[in-house]
Design brief:
The chain is mainly alpha-helical. Helices cover about 80% and strands about 0% of the residues. The N and C termini lie far apart (about 35 Å).
């Protein structure tokens, strides 16, 4: 079901993709799939320049698991963007600088499993940065 949502998102059928991801979340079959679906909805909202909706999508989680760094990065990005919208530029820049620092620093010597996971996290981080660049335009 999650992959059906990805296909809809890649086809730029955002409304349909959000509905599918919401269904994935409501089914709650696995924590990983649920977290990824929330992240995809947030990315869609960022692409639509709806920062508040993207933030509240991630805010639905009571806590973000520490092993899911791409969601932590997304929330940090959104906190920075919201601060900027509220004209709290210094606070926003601090959030975004923390995001940049988190992307630059990486763990040394990763196993194959960690490399695969890291590349997935890198893909999510790159999507966030791309969305941020779109917002800046």
């Amino acid at each position: 079901m999650y992959y059906k949502g990805l296909v809809a998102r890649m086809s730029e059928e955002n409304k349909k993709a959000v509905q599918i991801f919401e269904e994935v979340i409501s089914l709650n079959e696995s924590e990983t799939t649920t977290l990824k679906a929330l992240h995809e909805i947030a990315l869609i909202r960022i692409g639509e320049r709806d920062i508040y909706q993207a933030y509240y999508t991630l805010d639905r989680l009571e806590t973000i698991p520490s092993n899911v760094s791409y969601l932590q990065l997304a929330k940090k990005f959104l906190e920075g963007a919201i601060s900027m919208v509220k004209k709290k530029y210094r606070e926003g820049l601090e959030h975004l600088e923390g995001l940049r620092a988190a992307l630059v620093v990486g763990p040394p010597r990763l196993s194959q499993h960690q490399l695969a996971r890291r590349s997935d996290e890198q893909r999510h981080a790159e999507a966030l940065l791309e969305a941020g660049q779109q917002l800046a335009r």
